[in-house]
Amino acid sequence: MAGTEVTTMWSKITNSKWFYRVMSLAFALLLFTYVNYNNLVTSRTTATRQAVAATTKKTIKVPLQLNADTDKYYITGYPAKVSVTLEGPSSLVMMTVNTQNFEIVANLRNLAVGKHKVTLKASGLNKELTYGISPKTITVNIQTRRTQKFPIQVTYNKNAIADGYITDQPKLSQNTVEVTGATDEIRKIARVVANVPLSRDTKSTSNQEVLLQALDSNGNIVNAVLDPQTIHVTLGIHLPSKTVPVSFSTENDGANLAYSVTSDVKTVKITAASDVLNRIKTLTVPVDVSKITSAGNYNQQVSIPLKGNNLEGADPSSVKVTIKATSSRSSDSSAIEESSSASSKSSSEESTSSSSSND
């Protein structure tokens, strides 16, 4: 009885219009999902295949490697870098460009001293890539290697030094340099110079890192490697100085006083342009005595006059002097007394002489 009821109920459900509607909708959704999934898989597969199959071309600069005994031979004439054009699958080309895990090599191992034309080859490139090298061939000059030490000479434009200024002996961070090159080139070297660049009318010391150059007897640069390539050069530039005797003069003297000035300082070191120094034999220092109003001894600190003598400096810049002031009236009285005494003595001698004559 129960089974009959279940069967009857199921029959009613399956015969219902809603049952068929629900089943149709479910089937439609299932079919839609299936179709779209297949399309998505197909699209991804196609895109992947297209990406793998797509090719591209890139040109990059890479260092040139020499396969040679560079300890024994000095090699010139080759470029530091060459151009390499890579072509192949895009992903592989881009990876190679980014990593640059390959080399362009010039094999010089079995070549003798002299000039040679060499074909460049790539090493380490993926076989799926094609490549082109520019230039394809290079001409190199292989010579016996030589290293020699040279003293460093400092040069500079003397006309760039301001008028009246002088230079000191240059100070170098090191005095010699190692030069490496082909034996024939090393033999050409006449000197190694550090040319200090100076601006016009330079008046102060120059501290610079200066490039070294190996020159032949005609002043041409020799093809060689210098170690170090630069050195630090200190070139002292300043006004000259000299030591001169010092003397003193008074100014603003009082009417009834006489002055004498002395000092323990006998000489002064003065700094000025060369033409100014050449004119000064003795430096006269004026002493202002306007504040001295009575006889006596006075101490005073006196500055060395710079502007009036066109000086840039003095050492010491001031000196201590002792001023002795005396009354000019007392000096005059003493002179009169001495004169009267001399006259009296002369008259007495004349009288004595006359008396003797009369006898």
Automatic annotation (TrEMBL):
Gene3D superfamilies: 2.170.120.30, YbbR-like domain (2.170.120.40). Keywords: Membrane, Transmembrane, Transmembrane helix. Pfam families: YbbR. Residues 327-359 have a biased composition (Low complexity). Residues 315-359 are annotated as: Disordered. The chain crosses the membrane at residues 18-37. This is YbbR. It comes from Schleiferilactobacillus shenzhenensis LY-73.
